[in-house]
Structures are given as structure tokens and as C-alpha cells.
Design a protein that fits this description.
By secondary structure, the chain is α/β, with parallel strands linked by helices. It contains 15 helices and eight strands. α4 packs across α10 and α5 runs antiparallel to α12. The longest helix is centred in the last third of the chain and has 22 residues. It is found in: Nucleus, Nucleolus.
Length: 423
């Protein structure tokens, strides 16, 4: 529902209701013993407004059954949503202008140990950011692994490719995948199948469309490059690894300042480990750099990891300046990223204050030398909107609970995930 499929669901439910009850099966077997009335059961782990709305659409004369709560159990939402015990969580505080090279360094580090990390999922806040990073990291002359079916090869032609920058001597062939809600369902299915079946080290760059409802086996590492919009979404993201008793790792990228307070939320689930971004750069950039595309900045050998990080950042910036298509992807990714930043849930928005973002440094994380025009004014409008919203929220608290529920339900159903190309 919250991904914009309400109208499709309405059509499907309406079509099912209009279908006549079959008297015989396809093979001619009589169906007289079957009940004449269809019974629909809707099961959900949570009873949020979108689930309630789906029930109103699909159920008639419904009876609500809830699992009995353990009186001794914890009722706090953050306590209920806990990460698996076998999951090792860590976080790294990275200056905005070093995020891109730190991500590359971390991937190079984990792929430098043969067999240690085979499958990595990177979560980003919006589809435009996914598209930009996929195009930046994929090898220009790379090819996708052979698909089981010719049709799947066509479907994954633009979503699966060999990776550049993140490879190592131990893992010279890393496969890159991208997936988000703006891709068609057949393309998403084929891409997911390719990622799951890939025998080489592989990376899936995706949005929250991959955070739940998918069975992706043997994921070794989850990287939350952009923090989740809610703590519950964070639990779903990191839950892609450490499944079925297997150990797993999750790394969360945070900015210095207000975002550091988000670590306290992590501690309610498990005790996270702090990583130094300098150690990530040092471990990931120890080997000689190799750039798949020639620019005026050459890979440096024997220099410090600081110099290598600077060379890589300059290379990315020069590559975008020489490639108009990728430059547009970077600008679109940056704009959507900034807009998506303002959509964190109200309870956690104190850690993600849009007005505290340094737009110039944030642009650096997309390989841009300066923020695209017009973004600054948008941030100011968002700030004013946030102040006005705070006043409205205060007023809403004085309204009867029934009115608040109905209001929030209407707001939720009007909101679609593609407003900022999220999902």
C-alpha cells in the first residue's frame, strides 16, 4: 500500500469478487464439496494504518484476532524490534565529503579476503541514488553473468554488470546489481534471481524495496549507506543477513553531529561497534588503485591512504565532468537524496535535521564539485515547513484519538513512495 499499489490492489480485489464460483476444476473434477463462500485471511506482523486500509479494501464482515501479549514481555516498540543475536552491527561516522570514497574503501576491504564476503546489500534512500551509484561503480566494459533464460538476460541487461573500483586481487570479478521500485516487476525478479544465484562476489545496490518480503540467501554484509527512515525499517534492513542461524554483519554510515545520537537507538537492539572512517580508508586503500576510465588524475602507488582517497575523489569528479549522462544521474541522485532526507519519522527527525546538512559537502558524496542550483532554497522551505508542522502536531495532540487515526490514515494513503523516487 505504501509503495503506491493501492489502485492495482483495488482492481485485483474487484476482479476476484466479480468472478463466478467454479463448479468444476480444469481437469473436470467436481467441486461440489467446496464451500460456496470464499474466506479471506489477512495476516500481518504489525497492524499499521496501511495494513488496516488493506483490510478495509479486501475483507467483508471481518473479525480481528490478535496474538496474546506476554505480560512479562517488553512492550516498547524499539525493544520488540530486535536484531538477530548472531548479527554483528557496527557504525562509522563519516564526513559527508568523504562518504563516497569511504564506501569504496570498505567494499574493497571486505572483498580483499577470499571467501570472507560473497554477497553484500547496500541500502540507499532513493532510486535516483541507486541508479547513480550503480552507473558509477559498474565497469564500462563489463558484462553480466550468463542468465538461465535468454529473456532474463534481456531483463537484467541494465541492472547487472561487472563492478569496478571495489575489486581486489582476491576478488577480481565482483558482480554489481541494482534494484528499486521504479523498475518493472519482471526486471526486479530477474535481477534478484541473478543476485541470489551468483557464484562470484556480488553487490546489490537497492532501496527499501529489498528490505522485507524477499528471501535472499547467504547475505554476508548489509551496508546502510543512508540510514533507514525509521528504526523498524532499520531492523528489516539488517535482517537481510544473519538468517537461519548464520552469522552476519551490518554497517551503518552516519554523519558527524546530530546523526551520532542515532547510535543510542541502535543500542536498544544490540551493542554496536564503532568503526573509524580513517581505519576503513587505510584498510581499503592499502593496495594500488586501478581506475577503469582514464582521467587527468592518475592512480597513485606508494602514497598514503589520505592521498589515495583524494585521488579517487578527484577521479570521480573529473569522470562526471567528462560524462554528461552520469553527471545528470549524479545531480538527480543528489536532489532526491536531499528530499528523502526530510522524510524520516517524526520521532527520529531530531537526528536528521535537514537544515544542518552542508549541501556542498553532500554534493561531494555524489562526485559533484558544487550543489546543483535551487537546492538551498528548497532546504529553507523544508525548515519552515517543519516548524509549521510542529505547530500542527501540537494541535493534533489535543484532538480526539479517533480523529487523529482517521487523519493519519488519509495522509498515509495519499503519500506515495515515488514522490522523491524513494523505493
Amino acid at each position: 500500500m505504501d509503495l503506491g499499489f493501492e489502485q492495482d490492489l483495488k482492481k485485483a480485489i474487484s476482479a476476484l469478487r466479480d468472478l463466478p464460483v467454479a463448479k468444476t476444476a480444469a481437469n473436470g473434477t467436481a467441486l461440489d464439496a467446496l464451500p460456496t463462500r470464499r474466506v479471506t485471511v489477512l495476516c500481518s506482523a504489525t497492524m499499521k494504518m496501511n495494513v488496516q486500509k488493506l483490510g478495509e479494501l479486501s475483507l467483508t464482515d471481518a473479525t480481528f484476532l490478535a496474538a496474546e501479549k506476554d505480560e512479562a514481555g517488553e512492550t516498547d516498540e524499539n525493544a520488540v524490534h530486535k536484531a538477530p543475536a548472531q548479527l554483528h552491527q557496527s557504525f562509522v561516522i563519516v564526513p559527508s565529503k568523504l562518504r563516497l570514497v569511504t564506501l569504496v574503501a570498505h567494499l574493497k576491504s571486505v572483498f580483499s579476503r577470499r571467501g570472507r564476503t560473497m554477497k553484500v546489500i547496500i541500502f540507499m534512500s532513493c532510486a535516483d541514488s541507486v541508479d547513480f551509484h550503480y552507473e558509477l561503480f559498474r565497469h564500462p566494459g563489463g558484462s553480466a553473468p550468463p542468465a538461465p533464460l535468454p529473456k532474463e538476460a534481456e531483463q537484467t541487461a541494465k541492472t547487472v554488470s561487472q563492478a569496478a573500483y571495489v575489486t581486489s586481487a582476491a576478488s577480481p570479478d565482483v558482480m554489481l546489481h541494482r534494484m528499486h521500485g521504479s523498475l518493472s516487476q519482471p526486471v526486479r525478479t530477474a535481477t534478484l534471481r541473478s543476485f541470489s544465484a551468483c557464484k562470484s562476489p556480488s553487490v546489490l545496490i537497492t532501496t527499501d524495496v529489498s528490505s522485507r518480503g524477499l528471501d535472499i540467501p547467504s547475505v554476508d554484509l548489509v551496508i546502510e549507506y543512508d540510514p533507514a527512515f525509521s528504526f523498524a525499517d532499520h531492523i528489516h534492513r539488517v535482517g537481510r543477513t544473519a538468517r537461519a542461524g548464520r552469522a552476519g554483519d551490518a554497517v551503518l554510515f552516519l554523519l558527524p553531529g546530530a546523526e551520532e545520537g542515532y547510535v543510542e537507538l541502535l543500542k536498544s537492539s544490540t551493542s554496536p561497534t564503532s568503526l573509524s572512517y580513517e581505519s576503513v580508508l587505510k584498510n581499503g586503500l592499502v593496495a594500488k588503485l586501478e581506475f577503469p576510465v582514464e582521467t587527468s588524475t592518475k592512480p597513485t602507488d606508494g602514497s598514503s591512504y589520505h592521498d589515495k582517497a583524494e585521488s579517487m575523489q578527484l577521479h570521480f569528479e573529473q569522470r562526471l565532468l567528462n560524462d554528461a549522462a552520469r553527471l545528470d544521474l549524479a545531480r538527480n541522485g543528489f536532489r532526491s537524496h536531499i528530499r528523502a532526507y526530510a522524510t524520516h519519522v517524526k520521532e527520529e527527525r531530531v537526528h536528521f535535521n535537514l537544515t544542518e546538512l552542508h549541501l556542498g559537502h553532500a554534493a561531494k558524496s555524489f562526485g559533484l564539485r558544487e550543489a546543483p542550483g535551487g537546492i538551498g532554497a528548497g532546504v529553507e522551505r523544508k525548515a519552515r515547513k517543519g516548524q509549521n508542522q510542529a505547530g500542527r502536531d501540537s494541535t493534533q495532540e489535543q484532538k480526539p484519538p479517533q480523529n487523529i487515526i482517521r487523519m493519519k490514515s488519509r495522509m498515509l494513503m495519499k503519500a506515495t513512495a515515488d514522490e522523491f523516487n524513494i523505493g
